[in-house]
Amino acid sequence: MSDRAYVYYIKPIVDYVSSFMLLILFSPICVLTIVAIKLDSQGPVFADVPDRVGRDRKPFHLYKFRSMIQNAHNLLRTDDKFEQLYEEYKKNSYKIAGDPRITRVGKFIRKYSLDELPQFINVLRGEMSLVGPRAYYLDEFTAQQEKYPDTKKLINKVISVKPGITGLWQVSGRSEINFDKRVEMDAQYVDNISLLNDITIILKTPWAMISGKGAM
Questions:
Q1: Residue 104 — left, alpha, or beta (φ > 0 → left; ψ -120 to 50 → alpha)?
Q2: Minimal CA–CA distance to 65: which of 19, 31, 24, 98?
Q3: Residue 59 phi, psi dihedral angles, 5° rounding
Q4: What is the largest CA-CA distance in the chain?
Q5: Which residues contact 54 (CB under 8 A, 6 or more apart)?
Q6: Could you give the CA distance from residue 134 to residue 122 in angstroms, rounded to a whole number?
Q7: Transmembrane residues, as ranges (predicted)?
């Protein structure tokens, strides 16, 4: 089987079937996470965040369990008390160590990637893949391309495929990797998409989740 045949015919089927089965498998954990979020803080169960950039720059709503205070994304950009935090956020490739907006339950579910479980819904909707590049925010793309102009050549390649729940950079350091290196690794993944590479990344994902290495 050629890699092209895998990408266009086999991978979508594997994504759909696997996501359906995994969503059922993890449903008890999802229920417990929902209860914990509602008991811990006010706000919706799912993160209230802007759309992400999908394949061919098509925006889509990414489902994640809420791990921060309500309206955290907007407050970071509009509330004066978060002005310094927002500058740190942009400076550190859109990641913040010790983010004060994260709730108590949020710290736990982010560390073990439980907040990512609802993304199986995105896979079932055809918006994401099990394995693929990171799903970036639009403003993240714009700002980080200015900071790392060399990444512009790689981004078109990255968005030529569906973003993934897990991927090469996620199992290689997660939040510890800056934007330029993440895009480079995402482009490397696109250049080498194959069944074997996807299986390798999937097999590495549970350890990345359990260890919590690089999580923020």
A1: alpha
A2: 31
A3: -75, 150
A4: 56
A5: 60, 127, 128, 135, 159, 162, 163
A6: 13
A7: 16-37
Residue with token string 């942009």:
90
Query: Residue 28 corresponds to which tokens in the numbers above?
Result: 């008890």
The pTM (predicted TM-score) of the whole model is: 0.88
In our burial notation (b when 16+ CB lie closer than 10 A, e otherwise), range 24-48 reads eeeeeebeebeebbeeebebeebbe
What is the pLDDT tens value at each position of the chain, 216 positions in all? Answer: 667 788 889 999 999 999 999 999 999 999 999 999 999 999 999 998 889 999 999 999 999 999 999 999 889 888 888 888 888 887 776 777 778 999 999 999 998 889 999 999 999 999 999 999 999 888 887 888 888 888 888 988 999 999 999 999 888 865 667 788 889 999 999 999 999 999 999 999 988 777 655 455
